Amino acid sequence: MEFSLTDGKGKKFQFPVNPEEVTISRQKGFDTTTILSYGEFDFPQGEKVKEISFSSFFPKEYNPAYCTYEDIPDPQEAMNTLNGFLLSKSPLRFIITETAVNVPVIVASHNSTFRGGEYGDVNFDLSLRTWSEMKVAKKAGSGAKSATVNKKPRTDMKEKKKTYTVKSGDSLSKIAKLELGDSSQWSRIYQLNKKVIGQNPNSIKPGQKLVLS
């Protein structure tokens, strides 16, 4: 099972240690209207924004007992990455493999904790909120212009496909490291370009145009 956040450019950040538990909060929204002589009435307006929260830590050193992969990030760099996500105005995609969780989110809060006796490790609490695009559309009316807000979730938040032209001396792992920041993503690039590359992932040729996301 993997916990990861991926930005619109396809850059993936995988959490090195899976949390022990994840809390997903759901609440149905209501529009309250007061009717004279009858009091207040609640009219359901659909499900409110979900909040996803969990806690884990960034270990200073790899330990196969709890780390999900070997090439773990430096705790300070990982913490800075989460801070960058918090400040970003663009949505991310949060995925928990082997589950149905695959949703666009924004980072709502990120708290870090340093504990004595755990030199170099960084503990954190993370809160995510599911994201949907707000669209303003013109509404026909008599005289003055009016507008309505369409809250229909945006189904495709990805940017235009990112491509790369192979150069002499390139390999898929080298391209994955330079363009996606993670050499282990070479297999993903290969799957996206299998028809172009052929059966051997090591047989890429200069001039080939590869899709990265």
Runs in which pLDDT lies below 50 for 5 or more consecutive residues are 142-151
Biggest sheet architecture: 7 strands, antiparallel
How are the strands ordered across the major sheet?
A: 2-1-7-8-9-6-3
Number of domains: 2
What would CATH call the class of the largest domain?
Mainly Beta
Q: What is the helix tally?
A: 4
As a percent range, the share of helical residues equals 10-25%
Radius of gyration: 23 Å
CATH topology (fold) name of the largest domain: Elongation Factor Tu (Ef-tu), domain 3
- The CATH architecture name of the largest domain reads Beta Barrel
Mean of pLDDT: 80
Overall form: globular
Count the beta strands.
13
| Beta-strand share of residues | 35-45%
H/E element order: EEEEEEHEEEEEEHHHE
Structural class comes to: alpha+beta
Our measurement of the CA-to-CA distance between the termini, rounded to an integer number of angstroms, reads 22 Å
Description:
The chain is an alpha+beta fold. It folds into two domains: 3-130, Elongation Factor Tu (Ef-tu), domain 3 (Beta Barrel); 163-211, Roll (Membrane-bound Lytic Murein Transglycosylase D, Chain A). 15% of the residues lie in helices and 37% in strands. It contains four helices and 13 strands. It has helices spanning 75-87, 172-180, 186-192, 194-197; strands spanning 3-6, 12-14, 22-25, 28-35, 39-47, 51-58, 92-96, 102-113, 122-130, 135-139, 146-150, 163-165, 209-211. The chain has a seven-stranded antiparallel sheet. The chain has a two-stranded antiparallel sheet with strand order 4-5. Strands 10-11 form a two-stranded antiparallel ribbon. Strand 8 and strand 9 (122-130) form a beta hairpin. Helix 2 packs across helix 3 (186-192). It starts with a strand and ends with a strand. The relative contact order is 0.15. Residues 142-151 have low confidence and may be disordered. Residues 162-212 form the LysM domain.
